[in-house]
Amino acid sequence: MRTATYFFIFLNLSLAVFEEPAVYPLPFLVTSLVEVLCLLVFFGRLTHFAKVTLRNVFWKDTKNICIMVAILLSLTDLAIYGVLRIYNVRSIRWSRIVRPIFLINFAESRQIRRAFRSIRNTLPEITYVFLLFMFSLLMFSLMALKLFGERNLQTAEGLPYFKNYLEIVFDLYVLVTTANSPDVMMPAFDFSSWYALFFIAFVIVNTYIFMSLFLAVVYNNYKKHLKV
Known about the structure:
mainly alpha; Helix Hairpins
């Protein structure tokens, strides 16, 4: 029973590879039939669990309620999508986001629920570090706006350089990952090589200090809650 449940959960999650837009597209009829089969198996598994569990215990368990709601939402979305497809009306399958619920809430997924519970309990404790990081990012963005916004600099594409505050925040956020380094620095560096110190300081503070601190806090708190 456990192996069959895991197999159909995996099959249901893997439908995203074959549904439009897909990596390996299959006809809608094929994917819809497979999804209905998976939902029937989930409903049968839930019914079986209800037969061997006291009624008041079964209905008080939020995991069972989540599974039933996910099944209803999936069937409703599938029906609406199929009808709209018949009339050539373009739509999206919004119920895909509920598919991981089946992975988490079945009784066999105790270890997965434990991991998710640890993540949930860890989130409030890393909020302060995240807020400090965002404060640092916003302050560096404000300094960048004051330093470069009035220099009339341009990027290699001929666009204004560091003129819009929100765009600066996004560019510096990407710089934390070093994905746009050193391109984001070059217009300012070409104007004056001393401006490189600003970007070096930003990388040291936010990439090397804050990201290391963030990782340490996440790891220590997750390990602490995982042992509980």
